[in-house]
Design a protein that fits this description.
550 residues; mainly alpha; Amino acid/polyamine transporter I; 2 domains; two-stranded antiparallel ribbon; globular; AA/rel_permease1; transport; transmembrane
Length: 550
């Protein structure tokens, strides 16, 4: 009996040990799956595949897309809110800080896009450096960024259209169909009902641009160039026509004293203002989403990114300095702050009308490029199997991801119809900062793991100076965001986890690739999860894993 009990106990322990080892084994394989990387060779092969997206964009068109996406809501709309509510005249410094953060990110984007000229932007860069799971995180974040950016711009566009109509007709527009039905109260930190019905002009512009993007990117780029020329001329007109009417008293105090709230004026208000106006610079990263539609991406991407950001920064600082100098900063809390500032000049009705027309044109191009970038992110993630394949469907004639463009346009139109401007703008900014942070980290990793890969552009001073500084500044601005914005981002990312682990994890095409082997290097990073599977089924160039053991 004693011997039998001994062997029974021993057998039970061995079985438990075996089960524990098996559980650890599966956990190990699960963890390895999350950090499986794409190889640079795979990304470059995808970038060279011209059978789907059509390469039609020149360097000039790429730069115009960048300027078209950058100059818009940040200066025409959000600059007034940042000055009136948070920074005062120090909003000029807010723009400079935001420009520095964006400029450092532009260097990192330029290097990565010249190295891996593919349509996925930060999503693709992260896939090659930090693995599938973090790539999903950044891809889901970019979905939020571009979706809300287009909606934010559409709301600003609506404000200028309404102001133009009222200026010309001398009658107030019907507010029930030009404003969102809900708004956010900073005092009570809660939403409230405005009594309005829908922001109809915002819906109309989103639908019109969606149709244009479905027709083709070449046509979209040509329209964008015309719009960019118009809005640059309008911005220059405002600067030179109004700079003589600035008053020194409007710049004092340059840093208004803090009013007791963390983000209400003072230095902290100026930093929060930088977070708000950071939206003004985010357009350049959408340039990288068109890499697979550019004739010479290794050359065009760095020029387009850095060139568009440099031109836009100079114009921004000029507009902002003139705007806060013309009228007291607290009067700029308006959907059309530049038009509000012009009231402090004797230019009468003609200049506000021209400015409104330029702002409308400018905001149109920003929304266009945001919708363009969003559909290309969907296309890249669906091509990798992380989203349903319908989003990767390219039209046989126009060579555009038409289904994803239509779906995104409809969702964006709904957001623009019902959500207030401030909420949309802050959510877009914090989402962008997350993306910029990971691109900086990607540059550092790739400098040490892929020294041999040719690059059309290198971040100056090596990988240990500008990219780390840029990453830290991104963290600084994220910390300066409001608590409510951080909570909303966390909720969005939580939804992303559900989508990934219920769909993306199980449909990832990288998981089935023949190239995987047992090497632990970045270029040939294989998963034990795949290589130890007992059964494989070969179909064309893919290896389909039999999941019976799971």
């Amino acid at each position: 009996m004693v011997r039998q009990a001994f062997f029974t106990n021993l057998t039970t322990k061995l079985r438990n040990f075996e089960n524990d080892n098996q559980a650890c084994h599966y956990l190990k394989r699960f963890g390895i799956r999350l950090v499986t990387r794409k190889t640079i060779t795979q990304l470059q092969s995808e970038a060279e595949n011209t059978n789907e997206l059509k390469r039609t964009l020149s360097t000039f068109q790429v730069m115009a897309l960048g300027i078209g996406s950058i100059i818009g809501t940040g200066i025409f709309v959000l600059s007034g809110e940042a000055a009136a509510k948070y920074a005062g005249p120090a909003v000029i410094v807010s723009f400079i800080i935001a420009a520095i953060v964006a400029g450092l990110a532009a260097f990192s984007y330029a290097e990565m896009s010249s190295m891996v000229p593919i349509s996925g932007s930060a999503y693709s860069y992260t896939y090659a450096t930090m693995g599938e799971y973090l790539a999903w995180i950044i891809g889901w974040d970019l979905i939020l960024e571009y979706l809300l950016a287009a909606a934010t711009v559409a709301v600003g566009w609506s404000g200028y259209v309404v102001h133009l109509i009222e200026t010309i007709s001398k009658h107030n527009a019907t507010r029930s169909i030009v404003q969102a039905p809900i708004a956010w109260s900073d005092d009570s930190n809660s939403f409230y009902v405005t009594g309005k019905v829908i922001n109809l002009p915002a819906v109309v512009i989103i639908i019109a641009l969606t149709i244009l993007l479905v027709i083709g990117i070449g046509e979209s780029a040509k329209v964008n160039i015309v719009i960019v020329v118009i809005k640059i001329l309008v911005v220059l007109l405002f600067i030179f026509a109004c700079c003589g009417y600035t008053k020194r008293s409007n710049y004092s105090p340059f840093f208004p004293p803090n009013e007791g709230s963390f983000n209400r004026y003072g230095v902290t208000g100026m930093l929060h203002g930088a977070t708000v106006v950071f939206f003004a610079y985010i357009g350049f990263d959408s340039v990288t989403t068109t890499a697979q539609e550019t004739k010479n991406p290794q050359r065009s991407m760095p020029i387009g990114i850095i060139g568009s950001l440099s031109i836009s920064t100079v114009l921004y600082i000029g507009v902002c300095a003139v705007m806060v100098g013309i009228v007291p900063y607290k009067t700029l809390d308006s959907p059309s702050p530049i038009s509000e500032a012009i009231k402090g000049t004797p230019h009468g009705i003609w200049l506000p009308i021209i400015i409104d027309l330029g702002a409308i044109a400018g905001l149109t191009s920003v929304s266009l490029v945001s919708l363009l970038g969003q559909s290309r992110i969907f296309y890249s993630m669906a091509r990798d199997g992380l989203l349903p394949s319908v989003f990767a469907n390219v039209h046989h004639r126009t060579k555009t991801p038409w289904i994803s463009t239509i779906i995104i346009g409809l969702v964006c139109a709904i957001f623009a119809a019902v959500l207030p401007l401030g909420i949309l703008g802050e959510m877009t900014s914090i989402g962008t900062l997350v993306a910029f942070f990971l691109v900086h980290i990607s540059v550092i990793i790739m400098r040490f793991t892929h020294k041999e890969v040719p690059r059309g552009f290198l971040v100056p001073f090596g990988p240990w100076i500008l990219p780390p500084i840029g990453a830290l500044l991104c963290i600084l601005l994220m910390v300066s965001s409001s608590k409510e914005t951080g909570i909303r981002l966390a909720v969005w990312m939580g939804i992303g986890q559900i989508v990934y682990f219920t769909y993306g994890f199980w449909h990832s095409k990288l998981r089935y690739s023949q190239r995987l082997n047992s090497s632990m290097g970045i270029d040939n990073f294989a998963t034990e999860f795949d290589t130890q599977s007992p059964k494989y089924e070969h179909a064309s160039e893919m290896v389909v894993f039999n999941e019976e053991k799971l």
